[in-house]
Amino acid sequence: MAAHKGRRLRKGAATTAAAALAVAALSASQAPGATGAPEPLQTSAGHSTPVPEVSADGNATGNSPYYTDLPPLNSPLPSPSSTIGTPVSRGEGEAGIPATVLDAYQKAEAELRAAKPGCNLPWQLLAAIGKVESGQARGGRVRADGTTISPIIGPQLDGNGFALIKDTDHGAYDGNSSYDQAIGPMQFIPSTWAWAGRDGNGDGKADPNNVYDAALAAGHYLCRNGWDLSTERDLHRAILSYNNSTDYLDLVLSWVDYYRKGTHSVPDGSGGVPRHRSDDGLPRTSMPAAPGAAEPKPSKPAKPAKPAKPAKPANPSKGSPSPAPGTPGSPSPEPTPPAGTPTPSDTVDHLVSPDLDGTELTATAGDAFERRIGARAVTKDGKSVAKVRVRFTISGDTDATFTGGERVATIATDAKGVALAPQLLAGEKTGTFKVTGVVVGHAAKGVGYTATVTPRPADKLVRTSDTALTCAPGGEFAGQVQVKATYKGAPAAKVGATATLIKSAANPTANIVGPYFKDADGQPVRTLTGLTTDANGVVTLPKLYADLFSGTYLLRVTTPGGGSVTVELKVAATASASASPSPSPSASS
To answer: What segment(s) does the record annotate as region Disordered (predicted)?
Structure first.
């Protein structure tokens, strides 16, 4: 864990710097469109960054402890007999991943490939994190749906050798109403799971104890901020944002490299479980070992913490990685203040909008909101506060997101005390939703925005054909009505349209007789909603049918933005029958 300094990886394995560069090279070589050499990151390698206290969403795990076992020295050897999928390993047993767990990682990669193709997430990265966080769900002790047979819960983060994170979920996930604890096979802390959680197995809920849900959540977490994991710089940022420790970074990269060289599935429950953890020697209050694993050693008294030494100058020749300062989601480069010293967040009284135009904003469906959502952190006397982490959250029935597809973003305030959220993008769902900004880890009054998504408009509608639409009573119209929508002269795509069989030109309410559409059950309907124009602005209406009443009727199609067109429909008997009086009322009846 991050509070442990000076821990060294086992000798005999490839050096941490070499492992990092090797993995980055492998990632870059397999990424489509990857160009140029990755930008090196600068820090000293081989020790963890001390973080005695972190904010509630400082990283995915809250710097909880993790398994430190390294991959075997001998890389797995792919079997020449393997012809489908990943080569089967005939090497060390550690290359085997429990079948359900492996399936969860690979499905998460496939979903992220579709949802965020620019991220280039390899499933081997999820497997590496799953290995060090929980030993692949304790060797694959999961049910058929991917839920762990028993919960995997880390130690309480009470500041006693660990980070200090007070309870954020009222014990709902970890059973602890005093402090948070990391949960599940990917070891999310509850405050992070609250916004990062995903439903990966399609059962309608996001469960951190389900490996499908946890793997998909981890994938989205690693792919936020527009990171491209085929580059060394973003790969390191993402891993360090999961657990802020260079030891952790080096270890995960080693496992990624190992899994890339060959893996195979093993039956659930038969996977190997690591035996060494980063908190060896500290009191253990939870996270029991898997069956068959060695019992924890008696706890040793914690040694007094030594003052942190200044970071050594970077040695570019070793390729040592570090996060880039100021990157959202990246570990803060600021030194930890002495115990008892107020942090910048402690001085914040409330957040205000830095925009004089107010807290209401509007955008058309599918467009970006022109105004940026932001927050300024101020003290009681109105002074701005810099270096405060502000969490922006989208809530409500909306598919709007920030750039990158996330509904949550955490940004630090600048020298003027202002944090600007990433660009807010309207989805296709119209209506109003909320965006709130709060100070992370501090109970200060937040700021709220009301955002409204309006429908895509069309200011003109025309029929694409002038062919008359006629039908005999009780029959079916031969042609279908097709109209084209434009906005300011250009085709209006994805515009919603409503079609109504109206009583008359002056009375646009739906008629009760005459032509009709059919619903899914074959019943007559005279108003259709949910119609949408295609990429060329064209929409084709369903088939029309006539009842037994003849006459001239009107169909009106309308769109948001004022587009409207009225189409005439005639229901008439054949020539031989037209001599007899028509029993039908007029179209306006």
So the answer is: 28-92, 263-359
Asked whether residue 152 falls in the same domain as residue 73, the answer is yes
* 460 sits in which H/E element: strand 460-463
Structural domain boundaries enclosing 536:
460-571
Is residue 339 a part of any domain in this protein? no
pLDDT digits (tens, 9 = 90+) for 527-555: 999 999 999 999 999 999 999 999 999 99
For residues 423 and 539, state if they share a domain. no
Tell me which amino acid residue 108 is: A
Radius of gyration of the chain (CA): 31
Euclidean distance between CA atoms 142 and 144, whole angstroms: 7
What tens digit of pLDDT does each residue of 444-468 get?
999 999 999 999 999 999 999 999 9
Q: Could you tell me if 376 and 352 are in contact, meaning their C-beta atoms sit under 8 angstroms apart?
A: yes
CB 557 within 8 A of CB 462: no
Domain of 556: which CATH number?
2.60.40.10
Same domain, 429 and 494: no
Helix 232-242 crosses helix 16-30 at what angle (to 10 degrees)?
120
Specify whether 495 is located in the same domain as 378.
no
Say if pTM beats, i.e. exceeds, 0.90: no
- What is the tens place of the pLDDT at every residue in 348-362? 999 999 987 889 999
For residue 119, name the pLDDT band (cuts at 50, 70, 90): very high
